Amino acid sequence: MSLINYSSREINCKIVYYGPGLCGKTTNLQHIYSRVPQETRGKMISLATEMDRTLFFDFLPLELGQIRGFRTRFHLYTVPGQVYYNASRKLILKGVDGIVFVADSQIDRFEANVESYMNMLDNLTEHDLNLERIPFVMQYNKRDLPRVVPVDDLERELNPRKAPYFEAVALRGTGVFDTLKVACKLVLKTLG
Amino acid sequence: MDRNMAIKRKAQQLVQKGDVHGAIAEYEKLFEGGDKDPYDFIVVADLLAKRGSMQEAVRRYRQAVDEYAKTELYKNAIAVCKKILRISKEDLAIHRSLGELYAKEGLYGDAQIHYLEFAEGSIRRQDHDAALDVLDEVLKLSADNFDLSEKYVEIALRADQPERGGRELLRRAERAKLTGRIDEAEAIRERVSTLAPSLLTSFPKAPAEAGAQGAPGGSIPPEIGAARGGAVEAGARAPHGFEPSSRAIERELATAAEPESPVEERVEASEGTPPEPELQSHEELARGYLQSGNKDLATEEYWKASEIAFLRGDLARARELLSALLGVEPTHEAALRRFVDIAAQSGDGPAEARARFELGEVYLAHEEWDLSRSEYLRCLELDPGNDRARGRVQRIDTLMNGGPPETPIDLDSLPDERPPSSVRVRDEETAAPSGDPLIDLEEIIDEFKAGVSERISGEDHESHYDLGMAYMEMGLYDEAIGEFQVASKGSPMEVKCLEMIALCFLEKNEPASAARELSRALELPGYGPEETISIRYNLAVANERLGNLDRALQHFEEVYLLNVDFLKVASKVKELKQRVARAEDRT
């Protein structure tokens, strides 16, 4: 649910990048941060553990113009991917306006994707949220690596409701903005 | 696959219930079934470490390292190695693994540090063979490290392997010969003649005219290709004991920067000339390779030399070397990137613009549309008259979108700023009393807040405000209030911060505090009715919750007078009037 500050006339929308550990969620945000003009973004808050894993969440505020006189700000979050940080993931999903699921295309991460996807559904249910009613974009990341699962297989398993999907190599920026743009558009649609 | 999923789900449920033993037992079933997912190994290793089974944990971490390395995910493997080192500081072998992994990542400095750690440990354990094996690797990466070469010879002698030491000396002799230092080569050969005379029969004396400049590429002995000695033969005994790796590397760098003093340190009974800095050796080799027509090796040597100069902060020298490299290989992406960095750091806009254009060309050739477009745009910022760059952008836009980008995301001004590096916060593993049985969420939040406070200064009002919004969106109202309070101090955002604080108090069901903050906001000077309309509205809501219906109605009416359509205020006024009337009737 978008947060609105009327005195400053701004709408804040929350997009969460979800996915298994090491799938490239933070890399997505880092690429976005590095490519958007400074005046449209706030500081990226990204704290990592010594294992280079996300601590709690990454956060990147973006301002992408105005709707009916209200500044529209998108708050991009990532969740920590490790299995045992579920409490953090659940918390971060609270009030989510849109979700990008970043799947790791590598064959040996297939199950991790499925597991994370199911975990996301569980956590949404706990917030009384239904993926059917939330703007959702699928990103198949790491397409440049050898031994990747064909997109059709990923689609069948992870994207049964045929949400928009993009192939990506987040490390090089490929597909990162395509994903973001569609996620933002879908969220904006829900604002009416 | 289904079986594995079921096992994992069960294991996770057990983790969430705090049953670490049960979860580990479940994961073990996965491994028995042939599962080799490195991530699973890490999860189990983490659980084992929590349980205190450190040796077992290390074994599983190692398996994760091996699996990551097999799939060339070296960074992941390195991260896991570091984790092993944290819990098992004496694990010598892990340094060797780290050396290999860093070398595969091309991070030779880090590779050397860990190789040398391993070598030092091996020497302490009297395992000279292992030390020599790993020093072979280091010498491939740092062929001109005189101290290291001497140490190698010393260890070989200690290990009663004079031939191995002799071979190292011959390698240096060949290098000296290759770079035209014939006298040095001869001096080294003299040493070999007393150390391991049999070796000299397999390495016949070279004619004096076979110097570096004249050395044809094909005549370079194979061992020189990988290992390139170049230090001067000192003929002196190296000091006893092994120099700690970090110091050795510092010295190596210092040697290059200040060629005078290290000679005194190194050479007790020197017969030779000062040792040649590594950078210079790489450069000479590059020239040698170039003359013999081997462009690939020349490029590699120029790159190494330029990186040494760059890391040492000698930007002018690095730039000079990069220019030479790009003369040989104009599409060397890393070199172009480095050139851009250096030009930017030096404030040389025209050079940066040219390099960015070339970088754009490289990306364009690889169909990296986003990247190439970004580089052309940066080039245009620096050199607005560059029609070629403008034409490229138009071409890419046509290719990508059928026209210029329509989305509100403006890629036209890419910032120089790199993403701020992550604050490293230790991932302490704790048993958790709340929420998740294994991970204490409150502790994570505290850790996160501590990390953030290191990163964001009190004056960075915008970032504190954004963070407040982030916490608020998660329902962490106390944390949000804290951030908004910091953001509001002495900042032009005070009104909106006070409003957000009030909204947090309302969420916390503390309407009195909310009303207090909103009243403060209304008292601030310089804000017109339009800017304070929502504050009045929320003040009405707070008063309504407090049961102050008259005041609530008064504020709703103020809002109504300003904007009848604001958040259905008309119906609120009507409803409140009815309630007030009913209350009056009762009294």
TrEMBL record, chain A:
<keyword id="KW-0547">Nucleotide-binding</keyword>
<keyword id="KW-0342">GTP-binding</keyword>
<dbReference type="InterPro" id="IPR052705">
    <property type="entry name" value="Gliding_Motility_GTPase"/>
</dbReference>
<dbReference type="Pfam" id="PF00025">
    <property type="entry name" value="Arf"/>
</dbReference>
<protein>
    <submittedName>
        <fullName>GTPase domain-containing protein</fullName>
    </submittedName>
</protein>
<dbReference type="GO" id="GO:0003924">
    <property type="term" value="F:GTPase activity"/>
</dbReference>
<dbReference type="InterPro" id="IPR006689">
    <property type="entry name" value="Small_GTPase_ARF/SAR"/>
</dbReference>
<dbReference type="GO" id="GO:0005525">
    <property type="term" value="F:GTP binding"/>
</dbReference>
<dbReference type="InterPro" id="IPR027417">
    <property type="entry name" value="P-loop_NTPase"/>
</dbReference>
